[in-house]
Amino acid sequence: MPGLADESAILRPHKGRCAHCRSDIAVPATYAHGDFIKCGTCGMQHKVVRGEGVKLVIADATPLKEALRTNDAMVERLQDELRGARRSFGIGVNGLGIGVAYAIYLVAMKEHALDTQLATKAVMAMVMSGIVLELLNYFFLAKRQRVKRLQADIEEAQAQSDELEQKIRESSRF
Ligand SMILES: [Zn+2]
Q1: Are residues 52 and 118 in the same domain?
Q2: 9 is in which domain, residue-wise?
Q3: Which residues have CB atoms below 5 A from the ion given as ligand 1?
Q4: Mind listing the pLDDT tens digit for each residue in 43-54?
């Protein structure tokens, strides 16, 4: 009998989805439009929206907004840290100064002639010390890893912020 089947379908609890943790929430038929129902998994309070079927929207977005603020602050802090880590690259530029100092030393202390040989020696010193300093910075100080890790952390935190923003937007539509 199709009529009976339809009736039991109406009385059966509907399955809603938590707008926060995405787990299923059974919404009993006795819950009317505008009633509150809590997610059994994460405790988020929802409002029942009955229209075509049943929909659950977050009843109070305040905790989400707070989480978003905290998360945005974390993104900012991580970006600051990343800027700092990146700034300390380029230490190899100091090799330039070392090369010039070496040339001055050769001329002043060793009475080196101002010739192309001196220039070559100075350039060699610049390049070598520049490379050594950059390598020290890169590998020994593990700056590279740190920058990578920070970038990944920032990406993750930003994705989280985006998700929170979307949930807040969704909850304010009702
Ligand atoms: Zn939940």
Answers
A1: no
A2: 2-59
A3: 18, 20-21, 39, 41-42, 44
A4: 999 999 988 888
Q: How many domains does the chain have?
A: 2
* 3-state DSSP assignment of residue 12: coil
CATH code, 44: 2.20.28.160
Shared domain for 80 and 118, answered yes or no, is yes
DSSP assigned state of 92 = G
Q: Are residues 161 and 76 part of one domain? A: yes
Coil, strand, or helix at residue 157? helix
pLDDT band at 150 (very low <50, low <70, confident <90, very high): very high
What is the residue whose two structure tokens read 């390049």?
A: 127
Centre of ligand 1 to C-alpha 21, Å, is 4
For residue 45, how far is its CA from the centre of ligand 1 (angstroms)? Answer: 8
Same domain, 114 and 45: no
Distance 111 CA to ligand 1 centre (A): 79
pLDDT, tens digit (0-9, with 9 covering 90-100), for 126-143: 888 888 877 776 666 677
What's the burial of 139, exposed, middle or buried (CB within 10 Å: 0-12/13-18/19+)?
Answer: exposed
Please report where in the chains the tokens 């050594």 appear, as a residue: 132
